[in-house]
Specification:
eleven-stranded mixed beta sheet
Length: about 400
């Protein structure tokens, strides 16, 4: 398979974003690209969308989930994409085990970021931003934290996707007893809203045209992840008021698409990160011949056309020198490992060609297998689920 084919995992992200729009709009768009000409939803469609109540699935763990948003500034690193903007700035949403009945409902994303997301994928679109921004979450702002120390998982979203796209996974990990840092990589997604009210757009969109450029993106995201860990574990003054909850010796990283691919350089360059998960991301920074220091690694992907495999995965697989699993989830597409398919039914959007699994089921499987991986690798809890195929999950195939 050609190198171009291996990038299907990332280029298909555009199709995933079309799930967040009504049928009358999305049906007119090609499967792997936004429409070339402006397409506006009808008044009736927009009115229906504004009345829709979108809701994330309830987390599965025993804890309630708290949420807090951090603004972090790396004074030692200029922004890699817009150097004139000054130091690298990141918005990070923290999720943590909390006491039930405390705090207030946390927002899904800002209306400004939701508008940029919709407008970027559907020029001329009139779907109200609130249809996405007001999605019901299960986390609570200012919720009282549980006592104890918990593993930290850094989550990185797909290229062009805001951090909200992994909210369901973040909330579930929080409910299972993890602290989660969900990172927006500034200028790499459709819109990041900062405390001063600015919502910065995607500067890198359309610029990544070579394997070297994609590799550079992965490396930059690895630096973002390490900086976030620096800030959360700093002594004596960490950037987060509940940083005492973090067990510094149990840190993992997971991500979707480019965010998953970035876990490879992060594991290679940061000894603190002990385990990694790649959700359907082509590895433009491939696993080195020397391996990743024996660290455990989980790869979960969607089936590619005609039984093909991503060459970056087949090349990297034998170099993974620790515990490893490679799973393919039949009936999924690139976006199935994010929140966006959850909006499909409520907004009347079509599934991408070949997708047979529901958004609810995709979220369920993503949560289950990622959670099991970190329970095994960061908590030492035996997970038979990861030993091989199970009749309960016939969609999940194990590669050897």
């Amino acid at each position: 398979m050609s190198r171009h084919t291996s990038r299907l995992r990332t280029t298909a992200a555009v199709a995933a974003l079309l799930l967040a729009v009504p049928l009358s709009v999305a049906a007119a768009a090609p499967a792997l690209a936004a429409p070339a000409a402006p397409v506006a939803a009808t008044a009736g469609t927009a009115g229906t969308a504004s009345a829709v109540h979108l809701e994330l699935p309830r987390p599965t763990g025993p804890f309630a989930v708290g949420q807090e948003v951090l603004h972090l500034v790396d004074e030692n690193r200029p922004d890699p994409w817009v150097p004139s903007a000054g130091p690298r700035q990141l918005m990070v949403t923290m999720y943590y085990p909390a006491h039930a009945g405390t705090g207030s409902p946390a927002p899904y994303m800002t209306a400004a970021a939701a508008r940029l997301l919709l407008d970027a994928k559907l020029p001329g679109n009139t779907v109200p931003a609130e249809a996405v921004a007001d999605t019901r979450t299960w986390s609570r702002t200012d919720a009282r934290p549980q006592g104890g120390h918990y593993p930290l998982v850094v989550l990185s979203p797909g290229f062009t996707m805001p951090r909200a796209s992994l909210s369901s996974l973040a909330e579930d990990l929080g409910s299972r007893g993890y602290v989660v840092a969900l990172v927006d990589h500034t200028y790499e997604n459709t819109g990041t809203t900062f405390p001063d009210g600015q919502t910065l757009p995607c500067v890198e969109c359309g610029r990544l045209t070579t394997p070297e450029a994609w590799k550079g993106l992965d490396e930059s995201r690895a630096k973002d992840a390490s900086f976030v860990i620096d800030q959360l574990t700093a002594r004596p003054h960490p950037a987060w008021r509940y940083a005492r909850m973090i067990d510094r010796d149990r840190i993992g990283m997971a991500g979707h698409s480019a965010g998953g691919a970035a876990s490879v350089p992060a594991l290679v360059t940061d000894d603190r990160i002990r385990a990694g998960v790649d959700l359907d991301g082509s590895m433009d920074y491939e696993v080195p011949e020397s391996g990743i220091g024996g660290k455990p690694y989980l790869m979960i992907g969607h089936p590619l056309p005609d039984g093909a495999e991503d060459t970056s995965w087949t090349d990297s697989w034998p170099r993974l020198d620790g515990w490893k699993r490679w799973l393919t989830v039949d009936g999924t597409d690139h976006g199935s490992f994010t929140d966006y398919p959850l909006f499909l039914k409520a907004l009347g959007a079509p599934q991408p060609p070949g997708t047979t699994i529901t958004g609810q089921r995709a979220v369920e499987l993503t949560r289950r297998y990622v959670g099991a991986f970190f329970d095994l690798q960061l908590k030492g809890i035996d997970q038979p689920l990861l030993d091989g195929p199970t009749a309960a999950d016939p969609e999940v195939r194990f590669h050897s």
